[in-house]
Design a protein that fits this description.
three-stranded antiparallel β-sheet, Lysozyme, globular, single chain, SH3 type barrels, alpha+beta, 6 strands, disordered N terminus, 232 residues, 9 helices, disordered C terminus, 2 domains
Length: 232
């Protein structure tokens, strides 16, 4: 296999600054590259790395695997007061636990209001343009509109799945049609990892001492009911 000098230096770049949201690109020679995004362009994969981009022939890529272990968010990545206020306002408006909203934002965008995924999802809660349009969003990149619409969508999913947090999160990630197809969390590595990561953050927030501003009374998503057929 022939790789450019840049691609040979990629492992060193990755060791310098690991990403919070990542996937592994497994090459034919056994090398595993940690990437934060990728795009198939013709017969090549364009990989987004910490430190830059690189292109690799598609036939050299054996698999693309999600990172199952989510690196804890550092203290500096905590939501700014503005976002905290917006989260609490949406939590009260839609009767959804603020800690759940915050956990979704942490995994979706790491609190970056300008985040755009390879699937063209935008903002703090990573809304797809078509979903945002259905929810009446005028500016998908506006933090207030993004959090409001994302929370409203999350509320609708929680109601649809009888307050089953795992199913609601799976639908938020993979779409309600996929949850309906399988009748459980879809067996996609990305979705299973996503549900685990959000729930891990949510459970961790509930293990902390009570915050000054408690969640709205009767807020949706305090716990998810036991489901013997599926444990994401």
């Amino acid at each position: 296999m022939r790789l450019t000098r840049t691609s040979l230096l990629l492992p060193l770049l990755l060791l310098a600054a690991p990403a919070l949201r990542a996937e592994y690109v497994v090459l034919r020679n056994g090398l595993r590259l940690k990437v934060t995004g990728y795009q198939l362009v013709g017969d090549k994969y364009r990989l987004q790395m910490t430190g830059g981009k690189v292109e690799i022939a598609a036939d050299e890529v054996m698999a693309i695997e999600p990172e199952d272990v989510f690196t804890p968010i550092p203290a500096t990545a905590a939501p700014q007061p503005l976002y905290r206020d917006l989260v609490q306002a949406s939590a009260k408006k839609y009767n959804v636990d603020a800690d759940l909203i915050t956990s979704v934002i942490a995994v979706e965008s790491n609190f970056d209001p300008k985040a755009v995924s390879r699937k063209n999802a935008h903002g703090l809660m990573q809304l797809l343009p078509e979903t945002a349009a259905q929810l009446g969003v005028k500016n998908i990149d506006d933090p207030a509109e993004n959090i409001d619409a994302g929370t409203r969508y999350l509320r609708d999913l929680l109601q649809k799945y009888n307050n089953d947090v795992a199913l609601a999160l799976a639908a938020y990630n993979a779409g309600p049609d996929k949850v309906q197809l399988y009748g459980r969390v879809p067996p996609y590595a990305e979705t299973i990892s996503y549900v685990r990561r959000v729930k891990r953050g949510y459970d961790k927030s509930k293990a902390k001492p009570p915050a000054k501003a408690p969640a709205p009374a009767g807020a949706i998503a305090a716990t998810s009911p036991p489901r013997p057929s599926q444990s994401p």
